[in-house]
Specification:
Layout: H1 4-12, E1 26-32, E2 44-48, H2 65-74, E3 76-77, H3 89-92, H4 95-103, E4 113-118, E5 121-123, E6 136-139, E7 142-143, H5 150-157, H6 160-173, H7 178-186, E8 189-190, E9 196-199, H8 200-217, H9 228-232, H10 236-243, H11 247-264, E10 271-274, E11 276-278, H12 282-304
Parallel strand pairs: 1-2, 1-4, 2-3, 6-10
Antiparallel strand pairs: 4-9, 5-11, 6-9, 7-8
Helix pairs in contact: 4-8, 5-6, 6-8, 8-11
């Protein structure tokens, strides 16, 4: 596994891509919610998500003043313009940073390509090789565990209510995409992680496609995404804790994967699938393990009570 500093050093070797003209070739937004290794170069641009509500409690607890200082000193903020959506970051995740980029593209100096990654998950730097030959770079396709379809994985990971809401919003706003979405959900592999590098025109098309759905999904309460049995058992608060209340973010991540699949159907476009690196801490592993345990306990509780 590559070390973070080594990956950053490799990215800096590609800074020449942005050196020849006033308009940079590629900018990749790296999203942060807390201090970590700083991925920053002429290509990599760190942004602090949820800055407007940074002092409020999150899945990581209440942020310290020293951590907040680090984020202010090293990252852009997703709340530095009128009409920002920073205050809904707890529910929508990466999209507060994506929205910032869409509405402030000139602050990135209007790059020909825009990318999005997180501080724990970045594309391998070789994805930038011959980037001008491609319209989009997406993560490699992944085969689902236990031979599940994308629909089965979706429902197993969350619940049929969340799946139904997803389809409801899609039918309302992008009905023409439903046949292709159903085909994607029937597949046993998919595109995950909400990471990409798109040409400017594709990035703007993605934003015009995804944000109306995000705003529509935000009209629903947390409880609307949860299992009916959970509401009957009056354990909504416990489930919210388990799922970090990132309900809309979960939907958007899956729909971003579908958007990548949709791009592949346009034969006029050249798409590259690229590998990526994941950086995790022991605390990340502990939290994820506990989340799985909590979900299993809730399902067992539901079963034993005959719900």
């Amino acid at each position: 596994m590559i070390e973070e500093q080594k990956l950053l050093d490799l990215y800096k070797q590609y800074d020449y891509l942005n050196a020849s003209t006033e308009t940079p070739l590629v900018k990749i937004l790296v999203s942060y919610i807390k201090p970590s290794f700083l991925f920053k170069s002429d290509i990599l641009t760190p942004i602090h998500l949820g800055r407007a509500i940074a002092k409020e409690n999150s899945k990581d607890g209440v942020i310290s003043e020293s951590d907040l200082k680090w984020l202010y000193e090293n990252c852009l903020g997703d709340d530095d313009f009128e009409g920002n959506i920073s205050d809904v970051n707890r529910r929508v995740g990466f999209l507060t940073g994506t929205y910032w980029a869409w509405k402030n593209y000139d602050k990135l100096r209007n790059p020909k390509y825009f990318g999005s990654c997180g501080y724990r998950k970045l594309f391998d730097v070789k994805c930038l090789d011959n980037i001008c030959d491609y319209d989009a770079i997406i993560p490699v396709i992944e085969v689902n565990a236990n031979n599940r379809t994308n629909k089965e994985r979706y429902i197993y990971s969350r619940d049929v209510n969340m799946y139904n809401l997803t389809m409801k919003v899609m039918e309302k706003l992008h009905q023409k995409d439903i046949p292709l979405l159903e085909k994607y959900f029937d597949m046993r592999a998919g595109y995950y992680h909400e990471m990409y590098i798109f040409k400017k025109n594709i990035f703007f098309d993605y934003c015009e496609w995804i944000f109306p759905m995000m705003f529509d999904l935000l009209k629903y309460e947390h409880e609307d995404f949860m299992p009916d049995r959970t509401k009957k058992l009056n354990i909504v608060q416990q489930v919210q804790s388990t799922f970090d209340v990132r309900d809309v973010a979960f939907v958007i991540e899956r729909l971003t994967g579908f958007y990548c699949f949709k791009l592949l159907q346009k034969h006029s476009l050249k798409i590259k699938e690229a590998s990526y690196h994941v950086f995790r801490t022991k605390e990340d592993d502990r939290r994820d393990k506990q989340k799985v345990i909590d979900i299993i306990r809730l399902r067992m509780k539901n079963c034993t009570e005959g719900k």
